[in-house]
Amino acid sequence: MIRSNTKQSAIAIVLALVTLTASITAGVVFATGPAVAHGDHTDGGGTDGSNEWATDSDSFKSETVLSGLDRPTETVFLPDGRILIIQQGGKILIDDPTTKGGAETYLNINQVDSLESNRERGLLGIAIAPDFEQSGDFYVYYTRLDNPGAEDEADTEPENVLAAFTHRENSGGTTSRADPNSKQILWRNEIRTGKSIVCCHFGGGLDIGPDGKIYITTGEEFQGWRSQDLSVPDGKVIRLNQDGSIPQDNPFVDDGDPETLGEVWAYGLRNPYRAKFAPNGNLYIGEVGSNREEEPSSQEDIHLGAKGANYGWPNCEGNCDDPAYDDPIYTYSHIDSGDPPGAAVTVGPVYTGDMYPAEYDNVLFYSDYNDGWVKYLTLNDDGTTVGQSYNFDADAGPLVSLTMGPDGALYGTNYGGPPGAGEIVRYVYEDTNSAPSIDSTSVSPESGAIPLEVTFEASASDPNGDDLTYTWHFGDGTTTRGASVTHTYSEAGSYDTYVEVSDGNTTVESGTTTITAGEPPQVDITTPANGSLFRAGDSIDVAADVTDPEDGQLSGDSVEWSAFLTHNDHIHPDTTTTGNSFTFDVPTTGHPTTGDVGYRLSVTATDSDGLQTTKSIEIRPDEVDVTLKTEPDGIPIDIEGSPKSTDGGYTFDTVIGYEHSPSAPESVCRQGTTYEFTGWSDDNTERVRTFTVPESDTTLTAQYQSAGSCEDLPESGLVGHYEADSGVQMNASGVTGWTDKSGNGNDLSAAGAPQFDADGATGAGAIAFDGEDDVLDRSGLTGFSGGSENRSMFLVANYTDNNGGFGGVAYGRGGNNKAFGLVVDDKGRLTVQGFGGGNDFPSDKQGLGAGRLTQSVVYEGGQFTQYANGQQLNSGTHQFDTNPQRFVVGGEITPPPYTEMRVSAVLVYNRALSTEERQQVQSYLSEKYIGNSTTEPNDPPELGDISVTYTGGEKSINVTAAASDPDGDVDPSSVRIVEQPTSGTVTNNGDGTVTYATSDESATSDSFTVAISDTDGAESAPATVDLTYQISETNAPPTANDDAANVTVGQSVKIPVLGNDGDSDGSLDTSSVTIVAQPSTGSVTIDGDGAITYTHTGDSATTDSFTYEVSDDDGDISNVATVEITVAEPDPADGVPETNDDHGTVESGETVTLSVLANDSASVDASTLRIDGDADHGTATVENGQLVYQHSGDSATDDMIEYTVADANGNRSAPTFVFIEITESTDQDPEEGDTDESDGGDNGGEDGSNDGDLSLIHI
Fold first, then answer.
1. How many Å separate Cα 691 from the centre of its chain?
2. pLDDT digit string (tens) for 466-515?
3. Which range scores top for mean pLDDT: 324-328, 892-896, 940-944?
4. How far apart are alpha carbons 758 and 749 in whole angstroms?
5. CA pair distance 785, 820, nearest whole angstrom
6. Measured between alpha carbons, how far is 1223 from 1037 in angstroms, rounded to an integer?
7. CB of 43 within 8 A of CB of 429?
8. Where is the composition biased (Acidic residues) (predicted)?
9. How far apart are the first and last CA of the chain?
10. How far apart are CA 431 and CA 505, in angstroms?
11. CA 278: distance to chain centroid?
12. How far is CA 398 from CA 71, 125, 430, 987, in A?
C-alpha cells in the first residue's frame, strides 16, 4: 500500500534536544584517512552541504508501512520478516508486512510491570536474541517504578532495566504474542531523583554483538560527571552476558577498585540514544550533543565502539585535544547549521541489502531527529574511517530509529509526537517506475432497502503511462474488476468498500466508503421534550419508542442510552444505561454549570442485522445570576477552588439548586490596611462553605473589618535586609558591596564585577549579575536560622538568562541538605533549594524570562510553602539541615555556572511569618519594586477555561492560546499547574503548553487547573482545563453465522464465510479467521481475505463440515460458526476422464520418470495429477505432469502406485495403477536416459474423454 508521505513535526522530547541546529554544512569534521570512492550517480544524494537529495529522484520513494502509532521508539525484524514495533508508553506491536491485516498488540509491558513513560523515560530499546528461532528470546530496555504506589514521585524508586521475554508463535502471523509470564529483569540502573524524577538523558541503544553479548548505551541523566565515574552506570556502554551476568573479559572487571562497575565496557558519553552493530562487528554509537551557542559549539558525534574507550564527555565533545579521549569517526557542528534550532543524531544501520544500487553497499545511514533528515556516510573497507557524507531524505520527520528490512529497504521509526501521529516508513527503490494515483471515486447510493444496487466508479492515472487495473472490494467478501461497476447487496448490513488500483508493479488503495443496506430501526424519544428545563437535583424520566421494520419492537440491550454534560463546544460523559426508559438524576455538584451548559440525552437502537439509528435531545438549565462581592470591594474569592476578582462584583450564571463552594481569604492587606474576615451577608460565618443556588438572582457578600496597618515591614526576626535603593557600595568597576539594613551586620562583599542599574525596578534600582562569576557574599552570619529552625525569605529578582546553572540567593554550605535559598534551577524553574538531589524543590512555574517578580518561602515546623508574586506555588514537608556558614546573592553556594539576573531586594527572617505578615511584606515589595501600586495598577492576565478531547495516552494543551493580558503581554514560560488532575498526570513543558497523560490503561474524563502570569509578574486567576475522553463503549464481540457450500467429489470450493458475519460496533478483522474443528473428508485453507477454501479429499459423495471463529478490530472473538459442505458426484453429462494403468521398470535403488498421462484421456489436466496411493518400496512424486519413482533399494519386490487426474472441467478420474518392475542393478551406458515412456495401453495413448478436449497445462 502506498500512502501519502505526511511528515510530522518534531514536537516530542525523546532525545535531549539542544538549543542550536544542524544541517551540517559548516563545522563538519571527518576522521583522517583515505576517502572511499563514491562517484556521482543518478539515484544518489549530493554531497553534504548541497541541496541534492536521493529521495528527490523518481527512483526512491518513502512509503508508510504503519500509521496511527503512539510514540513509537524502535522497530526490529523477526527472522521470518515480521516486525516488532515498540512504543514509549509500553506496548509492543507485531505486524506482518506481507498482509494488510494491521498490527496487533504483541505485549503490553504495563500489564506485567510498573512502566513509567513521561518525558524521555519509557520503553526505549529492543533486540532479538541471535537464536530467536530456537529460544524465542528477546530483550527490552525500559523505565519502571520499583515503588509505584509512593505518594511522592521522588519515592517511587525509578530505574531503567534490561528485561528478557519469550515469544509464543500461536497460529503465526500477527497472532503471535510474547509470553507475559516469561519476564526476567536481567540488569537495573537506578534513576536519580530530586523532588521528582530526572527527565532526560537515558540513552537507549540496545543491540547484540557478534560475540553474543548484550550492549546497552546509557545517558548521564543530566549530570556530566557521571560519564567519567566508573562507579555509576550512566554515560556508558554496558556489556552483559545474555543471562545478565558480567563477562569476565570486560575491561574494568579487575581494575582493583571495589567501587568500579564490572559491566562498564566504555564510558564518557552524554546521551548515546542509538547504537548499532554492523555485520563486520563494528559498533556505531550516535551521541547527542550539548547546547552551547558560542564557540566551541555543540557537536553531534558518531563513535566507533571500543573496549575501554573514553569518549570525553563532559570534558569535551567532537574531536578532543586530549589524546586520552577517543575521537568520533564523524562529527558535525551546531553553530552554522540553520533552522530549526536543535540537533539530535540517531545512528542507523550499515547497508548490506540488495534493493539499492551498488553505490549504497556498506554505507552507514544516520538521521537527525530534530532537523528531520536522513544522510549516509561512505566508509573504508573495515568501516573505521569515513569518506564523505551524502544527502538521502530532507523531509524524513522526527525519526528515532533506522533499520534495514529483509526486503533490502531502509525502515524508519517516526516518533510523531501527539498520540496516533507515529509511523513506520520505508524507503523503496523502484528503478523509475512510479506508483499510480487515484484521482477520484464515486459510490451511489450509499444506503437503501435491500436488494440495494450500488454503482462504484473510480478514476486514476499513472505517471509512467502504465495500463491500470481497478479492483473494487465490496465489504462482503466479494470483489469485481473494473473502473465502473455495479454490485447488489442482498443481505442487510453495513459494508466498508474501497478500490485498489495497480499498474502491475505497485498497488494503491482508496479510502473506504460505508454502504448501509437495509432498513434501520425507527426511534422516537417520547420524554422529556427537546429543550426542556432542568434544575440540579431533579429526577427526570427518559423514554423512547423503538421499532424495526423486520424485528418489531426493540428493547433491552438493543437500546442504549448515554447522557452527556455539554459545555461550550465539548461534552463530558455522565451516564450510560440500556432499555427503553430510565431515570436521570441531575447532579448537584461536580462540573460547574456556568456558561453554555446542558445535557444531551442520546439513544442508539441496533437491530438484528447490526443496523443502527441514533437520536438525541438537549435539555437546558433553569438558571439565575449569582453575584459575589466583598466589603471592602475587590478581595479575591475562590469559587470551586478558582479565584475570582470581585472588583465591582463577580457575576456568573448557574443552575438553580446547584451547590457551589465559595471560599474567602482569612485576611488581606489592602492599601496599607489589614482586613480580617467576619462572615457572609446571609449570616453564614464559615470562610469555606456550601452555597445552594436559590430560585432568583442573588448577591452573596464576604464581609471584612479593619485590623490595623500593614504598610511597614515587620521588624521582628529580620536578620538580613538588602534593598537596591540604599546601601549599595560602588567604585569605577561596579558594585563592591551591599549593606545589611537589619542592623545585624551581615554586609555583603562583591566577587567578579556586579553592576548597578539605577532604573532596574520602577526606578528603585537593581544589581545585575552576569551568571558567570558575579556574586555578593559573606562568610560568617549573625542570626540566620540553622538546622531545621523556622525561617522566611523574600527576593525581588528578574532572571534573564540561564547558563546551565542555578542562581538566586542562598545561605549555608556545599553539601547535601546543608543550604537554604530561593533560586531558579538549571531548567529555569522557581525553586526552594536545600542543595543536592531530593533536597531541592522546584515548582512548575518558570522564573527564567518571567520578568520582575517576588519570590518567597515560609518554613515552619518542617513545612515549607513557596510563593511567587504572593501566589502559592507549592508546599511540602522536609527536614532541612542548614549550616549557616556563607550567604550568596546572584548565584548559589557552589561554583558557577549560575543564572544571569537582576536583584532589587532580599529579606531574611529567622522565624516563620504569619499569613498577614507575609502579605504585608509582599505588598511592600510589590508596590516598591514590581510596580503594581494603587496609582498605576498592573492588571493580571485573563485565562479562560480550556476544553479538549482526547482518546487516551498523552494530550498536549496550549495554555497560552487561552490567555490575554489587558495591559501587556502574557509570559508563556510562566504557566503554573495549580491543581493536579484526578486520574492522570500533567507535565508543564515550560513553553506555554502542558501535556496531560493518563496514569493507567483506564482513560476517563478529567480536569485540572492552571494559571499564567504576564511579563510584569502578575498572575491570572486559575482556569479549569476540562478533558473529555472520547469513550469507546464496551466492545461487543462479532457475530459469526453458519454457512453452507456445495462441491463435487475431489474438487475445491472457495467459501466467503465472513459475507454474512458482522460486528455491531466495529469491523471484522479478516486476517483473524481461525479454524476450530477440521472437516472429516477434506481439508481447508484460510485465504486471508474473509474466505476459506475447502478441498474434498474423499472418493464419493458425502456431507462434511468444519467450524471457525473470527475476531473484530478490537480483538474480541466471535461465537463458533459451522460451515456445512454437501459433496456431490459429478454430473454424468460432464463425463469422467478415462485413464489406463501403466507399467515401468527400474533397477534396484534407482529412479525412473514415467509419462503416465500419455495413455489417458486427451482432456486430462496435467496440473491435477495426484498420487493417492504411495509405493511400498520407494517414493513417488509428481514433477511437471510426470510421475517420478525412486526405489529404496531394500527389496527386489515389484511395487505399485495409485494416482488420479482431472480434466479441464474439474472431473476427477477413477483410481489408476502404475506397476513397477524392479530389476537387479547392472552397469548402464552413461549416454542412456532413464525415462520410460508408457506404451499407451489399450488405446495407444489417444483415448478421448467422453466430452472434453485436450487441456494439458505444463507446470
1. 44
2. 899 999 999 999 999 999 999 999 999 888 899 999 988 878 788 778 89
3. 324-328
4. 19
5. 10
6. 65
7. yes
8. 1224-1250
9. 31
10. 11
11. 28
12. 11, 17, 24, 21
User: Distance (Å, rounded) from C-alpha 556 to C-alpha 682?
Assistant: 49
Q: Which strand ranges, in their side-by-side order, compose the sheet holding 1092-1096?
A: 1052-1055, 1092-1096, 1082-1086
Residue 443: band (very low, low, confident or very high) from pLDDT cuts 50, 70, 90 = very high
User: Facing residues of 346 across strands?
Assistant: 367
Residue 306 pLDDT class (50, 70, 90 cuts): very high
Is residue 1 helix, strand or coil? coil
Question: What is the C-alpha separation between 1124 and 261, in angstroms, rounded?
Answer: 67
Q: How far apart are CA 657 and CA 454, in angstroms?
A: 55
For residue 134, what is the enclosing H or E element?
A: helix 132-135
What secondary structure, in 3-state letters, does 503-571 show? Answer: CCCCEEECCCEEEEECCCCEEEEEECCCCCEECCCCEEEEEEEEEECCCEECCHHHEEEEEEEEECCEE
Closest Cα to residue 746, out of 708, 782, 710? Answer: 782
65 to 376, 425, 513, 598: CA distances (angstroms): 22, 5, 22, 44
pLDDT band at residue 563 under the 50/70/90 scheme: confident
**All three cell numbers of 647:** 472588583
Under 8 Å between Cβ of 496 and 514: yes
pLDDT tens, position by position, 593-630: 777 888 989 999 999 988 888 899 999 999 999 999 99
Question: How many CA atoms are closer than 13 Å to the CA of 18, on its beta-carbon side?
Answer: 24
Measured in degrees and rounded to the nearest 5, phi and psi for residue 374 equal -125, 135
Phi and psi at 918, nearest 5°, equal -60, -45
Nearest 5°: phi and psi at 260? -70, 135
- Burial (CB < 10 A; 0-12, 13-18, 19+), residue 339, is exposed
Name residue 601's beta-bridge partners. Answer: 563, 617
Grid coordinates belonging to 265: 565496557
% residues pLDDT > 90 (the chain): 45
Q: Summarize pLDDT for 651-663 with one digit per residue, the tens.
A: 999 999 999 989 8
Could you give the CA distance from residue 722 to residue 919 in angstroms, rounded to a whole number?
A: 19
Q: Output the pLDDT for position 15.
A: 33
Alpha helices in 415-565, H assignment, sequence order: none
H/E element holding 310? none
**Residue 256 to residue 238: CA distance in whole angstroms:** 19
* Contact of 536 with 693, CB cutoff 8 Å: yes
For residue 867 the three cell numbers come to 510563593
Locus of grid cell 525502515: 411
Largest CA distance in the chain: 133
The model's pTM is: 0.42
Report the SS3 class of residue 1007: strand
Gap between the Cα atoms of 1037 and 1068, Å rounded: 10
**Mean per-residue pLDDT for 663-680?**
84
Cell numbers placing 528: 422529556
Among 203-207, 216-220, 768-772, 1128-1132, whose mean pLDDT is lowest? 1128-1132
Set out the domains of the chain in order of their start, with CATH numbers: 61-429 (2.120.10.30), 437-517 (2.60.40.10), 522-621 (2.60.40.10), 637-709 (no CATH), 718-930 (2.60.120.200), 942-1029 (2.60.40.10), 1043-1128 (2.60.40.10), 1142-1223 (2.60.40.10)
Q: What is the mean pLDDT of the chain?
A: 84
pLDDT tens digits, 1177-1214: 888 899 988 989 898 887 777 788 888 888 877 788 87
CB 945, CB 987: distance < 8 Å: no
Q: Is residue 225 classed as helix, strand or coil in its secondary structure? A: helix
- Give the single-character DSSP code of 11: -
Which of 362-376, 572-586, 950-964 tops mean pLDDT? Answer: 362-376
Q: 250: which residues sit within 8 A by CB, 6+ positions away?
A: 239, 262, 263, 264, 265, 307
Cell, residue 1064: 455491531
CB 253 within 8 A of CB 230: no
